[in-house]
Write a structure and sequence with these properties.
The chain has 1041 residues and is an all-beta fold. It has seven domains: 92 residues, Immunoglobulin-like (Sandwich), CATH 2.60.40; 96 residues, Cadherins (Immunoglobulin-like), CATH 2.60.40.60; 96 residues, Cadherins (Immunoglobulin-like, Sandwich); 124 residues; 120 residues, Immunoglobulin-like; 195 residues, no CATH class; 241 residues. Helices cover 2% and strands 47% of the residues. The strands form 17 sheets. It has a 24-stranded mixed sheet that branches. It has an 18-stranded mixed sheet that branches. Strands 26, 27, 28, 30, 34 and 35 form a six-stranded mixed sheet that branches. A hairpin with a 4-residue loop joins strand 4 and strand 5. The longest helix is centred in the middle third of the chain and has 8 residues. It starts with a strand and ends in a 5-residue tail after the last strand.
Length: 1041
């Protein structure tokens, strides 16, 4: 037997071995063995020859044998003779054969989670060494991107340790792990390749809120978006620049910093209204978007008030009134201040406040809908923006404007949308007009009776023209001869140009500056002519625009005349209605008043003890006079005012002040012209009958006093009064009754008046139980019912003395007397022609004038002409209605100028009655004593001549006389003025059949007049002769045969 040891190698040859067995066999020749060839053992093939030489050839490397492992192949060798066996043993010792471990590569793609990186695989492990085909197991070996685990069999897994979104799209990274065979002889590599993907980014959104303001900048805002992107370096957005939204522009940079810039104030947004601009922001990789939202909340934007002028849309400029006393033209300014005001978020604007002046928010505040007095007029602005502007026609600046010139008045107003406001200025343009010149003339002047040059009067005339600097003045004393009329002498002629006449004549026309003219007119001297009757000086001033003012000055013989007519209640202070005649209101005026009756007193004046009073004052407007309590009537005071002018000269003004004092409890009446009434401490009724002038009332008590408006058709209620009442510059209530007629209630605000202060067309009642005396030269107005149980006296001694009847005239009752002194200057007349004197039962007696052409007369009582001077009754076109007695007893006689409807008695009682109008009616004309009835027009009345009368009947229109004459006898005459006397003039008489009368016919060869006679006459007794003119005088003498 034999044993061999071999060691496993990498090849089968490593196991080859051989040997030599020893064979002993006694048998010769048989020391052999049975040969064998390639006997298969486990690990190799065995060959032995007969000689015992054997070999062993490995049938493989048998790397499966582990290191140190021993295995055997044994082969039995039999001796050739079979008697013996031997064993060949080949011991194989394994060696550590090199193992092989495969490598593995896997590719994964990065996802949104770590699991996306997970992968696994199987390594191939080979090891010739049996049981050693393994690797060294590993568990959770940390790679860069995941953990690696492999078991001994080579099964491996890879678990991502994160999503690894930081990997960008396409970026590849690897984790590699080395795997070692169990026997350490070999390694393998597991490679995990990770490819990055474009992971979705996140872009935050952002919202900002802004509030609309007055500018675009109020909408500006900004912010920062948060951008995340797992992909490294890709946390950005796509930049944008000035992307236009609806309300602003958007800009964002790559890092997400954004800004929003308003593209306008967007004031059109209303309060609380919300709008948005939205902008989409995209991540740089396009996988995500965000939104930037800017929310804009509107606010209540303030209105925008735009300054207004008279040229603003729809506006009308104001124009002052022009002409005489602002009597023509004139346009009120108007418009709407809201027309050009806007509010972007409100269509409803109103005016909330108004102030004077052009400084916004300053000035005197007014009330909407009510007049606010500005610099040159009154503005009424309503909440709806509409306005009217009434020019202050008394404003000096306005009056100084001429055509083409303008001035302005400014106001500032506040407009509101309900909560916010704005202020603007309204500028009203006032255009000028040509104002007529205004003359200032004194009241009636007095001169002594005398011949030419024997009587003079000096007075001041003045010219004013608010908008012209030069004028033409004409002065004239009338058409009579200069010798008769007199002359006018100016103070100077310096600066004047005469176009007709000359200084020191009865008439002249000259031009010059107003200053030079007024210097010349400062002291105008009238030198009386031979005519001792009243003269009228006519002064006409013409400006360059064709406007003129004409005024007259009455110059009468005697001591004075009426210029002012203040009225009040006896026993209480009556304002004298004086005005400051100087140019400087601070001048001290010396006031001398003469003619003050005994028992009267003047305020702030000194009684000189000779019937004159003197005051030194710079407030002549406040001077008052008080009569005794028991006085009723009117007196004339002669007032002289002197002062020192700025140039050192002395100014003089003379006026006659007619003071009317009514008995306590009587109405106070206004004359039909400018007047001044003073209310008493009691309850007064102040009567204003159309027409009046510009009247002033002092001390009107709205709690007790009343105004009676008579014959004003547009005034029937207090509402009518309110509609025509305004405030003047002093805040006094002015009731505008019509052109040139107004009542100013001094010191009384319009709002103080109420409906109880006014009555309309109420008949006033005056009680007179004593003497109501109208003194020489004075005037007293009356109206309504005069319950006269006493005496009303008109006591002219040569100056006009007037009882003026205002609308609707008076009704005389009470069986009293109206006594007119023996002067033709007494006058009872109406303010208008439709005023009527109704004499119910009074006796009116004396001389003077009844009617003077402007009055109606209804006589039921007695009217008697008793004076040396005539009593003239003239009612103009009004027919005198007489059912009472019209009588003449005085030598002055009675003249009736108007047509007469006589149902009463005409009585020529030893005095003449002249009737210049027609006479109709069934009344009687009675003559006794020496008297004349003269009929100036066609008449029809019964004329009775008293048997003892020496009467003359004068007929101007005998052809149309249809009356009946009775009592005509030898003492009487019939004068036919329209029958020409001549050789052919004849008179014939034909008795009627009854023998009670007949018809006297007188023929001048052309015309025949027929006169009806009552009585018995012989035709031969009528004689004709020439009268004192060219007519025919008829007389009668009884014919005796």
């Amino acid at each position: 037997s034999e044993s061999k040891a071999v060691t496993e190698g990498d090849t089968a040859a490593a196991l080859n071995t051989s040997g030599q067995l020893t064979i002993v066999d006694p048998d010769s020749g048989e020391a052999h063995v049975v040969a064998q060839t390639n006997a298969h053992g486990t690990y190799g093939d065995f060959t032995i020859d007969a000689n015992g030489a054997w070999s062993y050839t490995g049938n493989g490397a048998h790397n499966e044998l582990t290191a140190g492992q021993q295995v055997q192949d044994q082969f039995t060798v039999t001796s050739q003779d079979g008697t013996a066996t031997g064993t060949v043993t080949v011991a194989i010792t394994g060696s550590n054969d090199a193992a092989t471990v495969s490598s593995d590569s896997k590719s994964v793609t990065e996802g949104n989670a770590a699991a996306a990186l997970n992968t696994s695989g199987q390594l191939t492990i080979t090891d010739p060494d049996t049981g050693e085909a393994h690797v060294v197991a590993q568990s959770n070996v940390h790679g860069s991107y995941g953990d690696f685990t492999i078991n001994a069999n080579g099964a491996w897994s890879y678990a991502g340790n994160g999503a690894h979104n930081e990997l960008t799209a396409g970026q590849q990274v690897q984790d590699q792990f080395t795997v070692t065979s169990q026997d350490g002889t070999a390694t393998g590599t597991v490679t995990v390749t990770i490819t990055g993907t474009n992971d979705a980014a996140t872009v935050s959104s952002d919202s900002k809120s802004v509030t609309e303001g007055d500018t675009a900048a109020a909408l500006n805002t900004s912010g920062q978006l948060t951008i995340t992107d797992p992909d490294t370096g890709e946390a950005h957005v796509v930049a944008q620049s000035n992307v236009h939204g609806s309300y602003g522009d958007f800009t964002i940079n790559a890092n997400g910093a954004w800004s929003y810039t308003g593209n306008g104030a967007h004031n059109e947004l209303t309060a609380g209204q919300q709008v948005q601009d939205q902008f989409t922001v995209t991540s740089q990789d396009g996988t995500a978007t965000g939104t930037v939202t800017v929310t804009i909340t509107g606010t209540n934007d303030a209105p925008i008030a735009v300054n207004d002028t008279s040229t603003s849309p729809g506006a009308t400029a104001a124009t002052e009134k022009g002409g005489t006393a602002n009597g023509s033209g004139g346009i009120n300014g108007s418009g709407n201040v809201l027309t050009n005001d806007t509010d972007v978020d409100s269509s409803s604007l109103t005016v909330s406040a108004i102030r004077t002046g052009g400084t916004e928010g300053a000035g005197t505040a007014g009330t909407l809908g009510a007049g606010l007095v500005g610099a040159h007029g009154t503005l009424t602005l309503n909440a709806n923006g509409s306005y009217t502007y009434v020019v202050n026609e008394n404003d000096a600046t306005v009056q100084a404007l001429n055509v083409g010139q303008t001035t302005t008045d400014t106001f500032n107003y506040t407009v509101t949308d309900g909560s916010l406001t704005d202020t603007a200025v309204l500028t009203v343009t006032i255009s000028g007009a040509n104002d007529a010149p205004v003359n200032t003339v004194p009241g009636q002047q007095s001169v002594g009776n005398g011949t030419s040059g024997g009587s003079t009067a000096t007075f001041t005339l003045r010219v004013a023209d608010v908008d012209n600097g030069s004028e033409t003045v004409s002065l004239s004393l009338g058409s009579s001869s200069q010798t008769s009329t007199g002359i006018l002498t100016l103070s100077t002629t310096s600066g004047l140009t005469f176009s007709s006449g000359a200084n020191g004549t009865k008439a002249m026309t000259f031009s010059g500056s107003i200053s030079d003219i007024n210097t010349a007119l400062a002291n105008v001297t009238f030198s009386g002519g031979s005519n001792n009757t009243t003269r009228t000086l006519t002064m006409t001033t013409t400006d360059g625009g064709g406007l003129a003012d004409t005024d007259t000055v009455t110059i009468v013989k005697g001591s004075g005349a009426t210029a002012l007519a203040p009225a009040g209640i006896a026993g209480e202070a009556i304002n004298l209605a004086l005005v400051d005649p100087s140019d400087d209101p601070n001048d001290v005026i010396t006031v001398t008043i003469s003619g003050v009756p005994l028992g009267w007193s003047l305020s702030d004046a000194t009684n000189n003890g000779d019937g004159t009073w003197t005051a030194h004052t710079n407030d002549v407007q406040s001077m008052t006079i008080t009569s005794p309590l028991d006085f009723a009537g009117a007196v004339v005071l002669n007032v002289t005012q002197t002062w020192t002018n700025a140039d050192g000269t002395t100014g003089t003004a003379t006026v006659s002040d007619n003071v009317e004092a009514y008995a306590k409890g009587s109405p106070i009446f206004a004359v039909s012209g400018d007047d001044h009434l003073t209310a008493s401490s009691g309850s007064d009724l102040l009567v204003f009958a159309q027409p009046i002038g510009h009247d002033v009332v002092y001390h009107f008590d709205a709690m007790h006093d009343q105004i009676d408006l008579i014959d004003y058709a547009n005034f029937a209620s207090f509402a009518d009064v309110q509609a025509h009442t305004v405030s003047d510059a002093n805040g006094d209530a002015v009731i505008e009754l019509g052109e040139g007629q107004s009542i100013t209630l001094q010191g009384l605000d319009p709002t103080s008046l109420n409906s109880s202060n006014f009555v309309f067309d109420q008949t006033p009642v005056t009680e007179n139980s004593g003497s109501l005396v109208i003194s020489d030269g004075a005037l007293l107005p009356l109206s309504g019912t005069i319950d006269n149980t006493g005496t009303i006296e008109l006591n002219s001694t040569g100056n006009g003395t007037n009882l003026e009847l205002i609308e609707h005239g008076i009704t005389l009752q009470g069986h009293g007397q109206v006594m007119l002194s023996d002067s033709d200057q007494n006058l009872i007349t109406g303010a208008t022609s439709d005023v009527t004197l109704t004499n119910v039962d009074n006796t009116i007696a004396g001389a003077g004038h009844l009617g003077d052409g402007t009055m109606g007369l209804v006589n039921k009582g007695m009217i008697v002409a008793t004076g040396v001077n005539v009593l003239d009754i003239d009612t103009g076109t009004n027919i005198i209605v007489n059912s009472g007695t019209l009588e003449a007893t005085g030598s002055g006689g009675m003249v009736i100028d108007s047509n007469l409807d006589n149902s009463g008695l005409l009585w020529a009682h030893g005095a003449n009655i002249t009737l210049n109008g027609s006479v109709t009616g069934g009344g009687t004309a009675l003559m006794d004593g020496v008297a004349t009835f003269e009929f100036g027009a066609a008449s029809s009345t019964k004329i009775t001549l008293d048997a003892g009368a020496t009467g003359t009947i004068v007929l101007h229109d005998s052809f149309d006389f249809s009356g009946l004459v009775s009592g005509f006898n030898g003492n009487d005459h019939l004068d036919l003025l329209d029958v020409a006397f001549g050789a052919g003039t004849t008179a014939s008489y034909v008795a009627n059949q009854a023998g009670t009368g007949g018809t006297l016919s007188v023929n001048d060869g052309v015309h025949t007049t027929n006169i009806a006679l009552l009585g018995q006459y012989d035709a031969a007794g009528f004689q004709t002769e020439a009268d004192k003119n060219t007519g025919t005088m008829i007389s009668y003498h009884d014919y005796f045969v």
